Amino acid sequence: MNQKLAGVPLEKHEDYSELVQRDRVHGAIYSSQAVFEAELTNIFHRAWLCVGHEAEIPNPGDFRVTHMGKQSVIMVRGHDNVVRVVMNRCRHRAVTVTETDTGNQKRFSCPYHGWTYDNTGALLSVPDQGGYGSEFRLEDNGLTPAPRTDFYRGFVFASLAASGPTLLEHLGLAASYIDLFLDVSPTGEIDVRAGVNKTFFKANWKFVGMDGYHPNYVHKTVYDTRRRKAPAGVTDSAKGETFSDEAGNFARDLGNGHAMLDVYPVRSRDYDQYLKRMAKTPDWNEYYKSMVAAYGQERADEILVWAGDPHIGIFPNLQLIGSQIRLIRPTAADRTEVLMFLTTLKNVPDSINEMRIRNHESFYGPASQGSPDDVEIFERTQIGLSADINPWVLLARGLEREVVAEDGSICGGITDETTQRGQLKQWKKMMGEAK
Amino acid sequence: MSIATLEEIQSFLFKEADAADESRFDDWFALWASDGDILYWVPAGSDNVDPKKQISIVYDDRSGIDDRVFRFKSKAAHALRPPPRMRRILGNVVIESESDTSVKVRANMILAEVRRGTQDVLNGRVIYDLVRENGELRMVGKKVLLINNNEYIDNLSFLM
After folding, report:
1. What is chain A's mean pLDDT, rounded?
2. Same domain, yes or no, for A260 and A295?
3. Interface check A376 vs B, CB under 8 A
4. Cα angle at A341 between A338 and A347, to 5 degrees?
5. Which runs of consecutive H residues, i.e. helices, occur in A13-104?
6. Per-residue H/E/C for B102-135
């Protein structure tokens, strides 16, 4: 039934939503530059995007330049302590108003003709302003703000669409997992100044993350390495037993394109073993006590079973995995930039944060044990997609065994493609409904 | 007092470079001191980071290097299958400081890596801490300061 799309030039398909079927997707959603351009319009220049976290820019004047889809924007904390997202474009002739990616500035001056803005985006001065006539008003010509900006526990989200679902409506079930990520600090606060892995790969952005079927194959070397050290007390979940059907873990579609790999079942079985191992690490007991004091025994244990790691993808560009905030930016159908910000915890012993740093480095980043093999597989997928006589990519795994859970999420086994189907359901909705 | 002449130091560095370029991982590991703390370090973001408070691209102690060599030798390390072909040039070799037991050396590096049809060129400064062990020079520290460590970076699945 799906053969009608095979071999037909993609440009003939006005309705991209046909490319996502119940059990399979057309490879063009990953390889077509036309689809990519439509994604920019219909998804990245419209949806709530995570721009960053307020803790990256704690002081007035702190800023980071980033992109929303194609558009260069500045996330900046103003002298009034308000975080804003403004276009990195002089209102006069469109020159970028800062040349560095991060920094602290009271003013943003355009190097072309000297128009100068403050760190709230307000236009302060225009050389020889009289030349614009008496109608010209500075207050009408500040840096253009993102049409909508909103916050969830310090995460900065912005949308280039003036209307649409609220941020809380968009986050839906995902919000409580952002809480989990932050509440692994006894005061629920993180720092985001411990550095960032800036990486790119030559493949489509939709390959990133949320596949519970791949770890034992793609990351075999990681688990082999850990098993070598098993006598030193590595838990079953750390050795990779997590990602098999027997483990009893879940792949979940949380709605609105959000998806997670829920490894709570195996981690709760492992928890006593985990606590015993962690108790031998520096300052753990002090940290554990502070968590119990802050949240009570039950919630503290719940957070620590997860180790504050929800392994969640928040559509379309944010993932919270391990200790990192991961932001995904497509630059072409076959090129993607990924930022991995390591988060540290406020109000914990330094050694706890140092352990987060070392754990992150071992799996993530361009020379780690984990990320390079993911990138390799994404790039080989992109090459494979060029063989499109039969263009379909199968995402049928678990269709017949997934169930609707109490919270309304769709729940499959950890190795099931429930996560990808959830993400692409939202993709299909946004690509189909916008023009 | 010096533990080695510049000439001997350079031939050691060239031997280390060849082992890395030729993916002779055990030979490379054997050029590290067999005892005590060692550190293979590639900072991320800038050349001057506090590794206790900032992530690095590589921050391997002995156990970390051992894991890296184990992984690189595995047939399941997809990012190294097929393995990269590499050659590097070391130049501007300068002794920065020395004592009765150790010497700190810096060099500039240009490293070309070819894999799956793409050639990447990496540039940076390498700082070596060397000691003498059983008569032979050995590394206790190797720090690689890539000039693009604050830029978007491709896979670095090889010895830098």
Report:
1. 94
2. yes
3. yes
4. 165
5. 28-31, 33-39
6. EEEEEEEEEEEEEECCEEEEEEEEEEEEEEEECC
- In single-letter form, the type of residue at position A219 comes to H
Name residue, tokens 């302590």.
A81
Structural domain harbouring A118: 49-164
User: Nearest CB to A361: which of B59, B74, B152?
Assistant: B59
Q: Do A213 and A160 have their domain in common?
A: no
| Domain tally, chain A | 2
- Distance CA(B93)–CA(B109), nearest Å, equals 10
Of A228, A323, A370, give the one whose Cα is nearest residue B63.
A228
**How big is the CA angle at A180 (ends A174 and A181), to the nearest 5 degrees?**
95
3-class DSSP string for B7-55:
HHHHHHHHHHHHHHHCCCHHHHHCCECCCCCCEEEEECCCCCCCCCCCC
Interface test with A, best of B72, B74, B80, B152 (most A CBs within 10 A): B152
Reported ipTM: 0.96
CB–CB contact A369 B71 (8 Å): yes
Does the residue A14 lie in any domain? Answer: no
- pTM to 2 decimal places: 0.95
**A346 neighbors A198 (Cβ within 8 angstroms):** no
Mean pLDDT over B141-151 rounds to 97
CATH of residue A55: 2.102.10.10
Half-sphere exposure of A379 (CA within 13 A, CB side): 19
B70 touches chain A (CB under 8 A): yes
pLDDT of residue A14: 60
Query: With 50 as the cut, is the pLDDT of residue B16 above it?
Result: yes
Q: A145: cis peptide before it, omega within 30°?
A: no
Q: Place A246 in a pLDDT band, splitting at 50, 70 and 90.
A: confident
Identify which has the larger pLDDT, A142 or A2: A142
pLDDT, tens digit, for every residue of A397-432? Answer: 999 999 999 999 999 999 999 999 999 999 999 998
CB contact under 8 A, B49 and A221: no
B44:A350 CB<8 A: no
